[in-house]
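Inputs:
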Amino acid sequence: MWLDKYCDFDTVIHNWEPRVKIIGLMTLIFTFAFISTLKLIPFIVVISLSVYLLSGLPFSFLFSRLRIPGFFLIIMLVLLVFISKGTVLFKLGPLAVKEEGLLSSLLIGGRFLSILTLIIVLFGTSSFTENIKAMRSLGLPVIFADMMTFTYRYFFEISKDLSNMSHSMSLRGFKPMNYKELPTLASMTGTIFVRSFDQSERVFSAMTIRGYGQVMTFRNNTKIYPRDIALLLIALAFSLALIITQLYLKN
Amino acid sequence: MHVPDGILPGSVVIAGYAVTGMAAYISLKNINKKENPREDIPKASILTAAFLVASLIHVPIPPVSVHLALNGIMGVLLGYYAFPAIIISLFFQAVLFGHGGLTTLGINSVILGLPAFISFFIYNNSKSFVKGNRFRLGLVGFVVGGLALGLSVLIFFLILVNFIPANIDVVAEKQAIYTLSIAHIPLVIIEGIFTAFLFIYLKKVQPRLMGLDEKVSN
């Protein structure tokens, strides 16, 4: 589940300064979201897969991340093929496969694959702390930065608590088989909230003693090198080229 | 209830970020009015992590099992921190589990966050109605939990059916919204009942968490 388990590789994408990487890859991600011409889909898929290859992340990591959202998307895309209005390509029993639906499905599927691939590269090639620091330097409000750090820190701990509680309950014979178990499940959820609340009070006291909440200036000390800017310019050039091509194709 | 990346056109994605930005600004403005705005951050963050974990609990509704949205209770427990908490939860769900997406983070925050805001206001205004009565507290919990999910379902399908880049038949579109909304009614009821039990449990065990201190009569 860890996002950054491959963040210590030594590749051009891993060595890209996190602030510049966020700007470059997020520009590409949002450009991909704006692509509405099917002819450009192969290009964005190739761009994202090339970035993924450059990052050196294993493909098993990409497939494991695609599994859950891909399942939901495939159901939706299959539905689109049948419920869209337009030319009937062929019939599958009572269902008609529509050309427009098929094209829309390819457009959505291609965009989804390209965007998700870049997101995995963005968060898989820098440590979570580096990314939060970079986002903070780029103007993320302090409340968001702090909340993100704490949430990430405690998510895995609370997950372990839930797993222990579920295990203990099943050892005592609890098997959630139907809706009659709702009160027990609500109590289990409530216990997680109560424990977390009590823990948050202890954490806040401990942090206050160590100076949390005092006014402090935030400085990001990582250096930006010419190669970081060069990679950013390449990403911006691809985004611009895609936007201009889309405008040209639409006219 | 998460819109994945790549489904919605760019203009809708930007509109989602605009509405989310505005709601986040209102939340931060109210949080910053406090004497020490960072005081509640550990509580809000750890509870956000707890919500993230709790949303992984499977509730059995034979023959399937479902995950709960919990946005109603998030609004009640976190108040003005609920909207930032929902943005952060959705961010982690997108990058950790692949639920939702980064480009659709704005629109997903609107889907879950605005009903959470409404739940917060309903709960705050119903404290005089509850008056320490356990049944009334459960009733408010049912309304808050069910309404939040119901509104989220409605916004989700309206966005999906109206803005998906496909030439969907108008009649099919109306039927889809109607059918999918009806199909979610059992989930809305389950979420309401679950929230009612959760309210009663929290009031009994840790009333401070719900901003209440008085004892509840049986």
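Chain B has nine helices and two strands. Flag for discussion at group meeting.
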